[in-house]
């Protein structure tokens, strides 16, 4: 997010090499990486925090993560938390309903545990063609394995849906691009000429449908676990 007082980055990919890809991407878009001020980590898996410390050290950016997932990150060393991804320090812990403001932009934090113990999601403004729209990023796409975590995921989704409704969210993004055909959307957005044909714009009904589909997925997963 480009704000009037610098850049907010959500997540940082796997490692230092990926962090450099982020830097290269910023420059390709005409952004100055030196303007990076805040790095918001959605959850404590290596593909989200792995490049954060490199970016923090290079640009003196502040890192934000939930306290629960900071502990989880530092005490999990397998799977997505393997040796590839450097652990990061955290400057401020994120909490439910917290608002992070930089310049003219405010990001609302929504606690959505389930995919990880302290996963968070975000609601924030985006601008195009002189207009502002509210966007949401579901921070933990990917249904967990245990029944306890599945039930928690379901509860978090309902909590997040209420935030989306209350904030008139019409744009959808996810922390896992593979989960919603995000890579194709990124290619298509370059050619969009209006908000209506921007693939990330769903409108309020589209957001409701998207969240309902996620709800059906977790309901089916819970039902299959009971069988």
UniProtKB/TrEMBL annotation:
Residue ranges of every copy of the Metallo-beta-lactamase domain listed in the record: 3-176
Keywords: Hydrolase, Metal-binding, Zinc
Highest taxon of the lineage: Bacteria
Gene3D superfamilies membership: Ribonuclease Z/Hydroxyacylglutathione hydrolase-like
Alphabetized InterPro entries for the sequence: MBL_Glyoxalase_II (IPR051453), Metallo-B-lactamas (IPR001279), RibonucZ/Hydroxyglut_hydro (IPR036866)
Cofactor needs: Zn(2+)
Keyword Hydrolase among UniProt keywords: yes
Transmembrane portions of the chain: none
E.C. no: 3.5.2.6
GO molecular function, one term: beta-lactamase activity
Protein name (Swiss-Prot/TrEMBL): Metallo-beta-lactamase L1
Provenance organism: Megamonas hypermegale
């Amino acid at each position: 997010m480009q704000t009037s007082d610098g850049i907010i980055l959500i997540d940082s990919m796997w490692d230092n090499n990926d962090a450099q890809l982020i830097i290269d991407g910023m420059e390709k878009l005409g952004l100055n990486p030196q303007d990076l001020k805040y790095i918001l980590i959605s959850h404590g898996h290596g593909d989200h925090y792995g490049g954060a410390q490199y970016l923090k050290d290079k640009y003196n950016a502040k890192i934000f993560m939930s306290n629960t997932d900071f502990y989880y990150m530092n005490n999990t060393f397998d799977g997505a938390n393997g040796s590839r991804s450097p652990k990061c320090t955290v400057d401020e812990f994120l909490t439910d309903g917290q608002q992070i403001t930089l310049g003219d932009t405010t990001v609302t934090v929504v606690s959505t545990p389930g995919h990880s113990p302290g996963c968070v999601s975000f609601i924030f403004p985006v601008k195009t063609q002189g207009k502002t729209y509210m966007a949401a990023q579901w921070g933990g796409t990917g249904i967990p394995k245990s029944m306890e975590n599945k039930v928690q995921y379901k509860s978090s989704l309902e909590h997040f849906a209420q935030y989306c409704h209350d904030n008139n969210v019409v744009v959808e993004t996810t922390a896992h691009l593979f989960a919603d055909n995000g890579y194709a959307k990124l290619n298509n957005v370059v050619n969009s000429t209006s908000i209506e044909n921007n693939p990330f714009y769903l409108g309020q009904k589209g957001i409701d449908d998207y969240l309902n589909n996620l709800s059906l997925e977790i309901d089916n997963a819970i039902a299959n676990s009971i069988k």
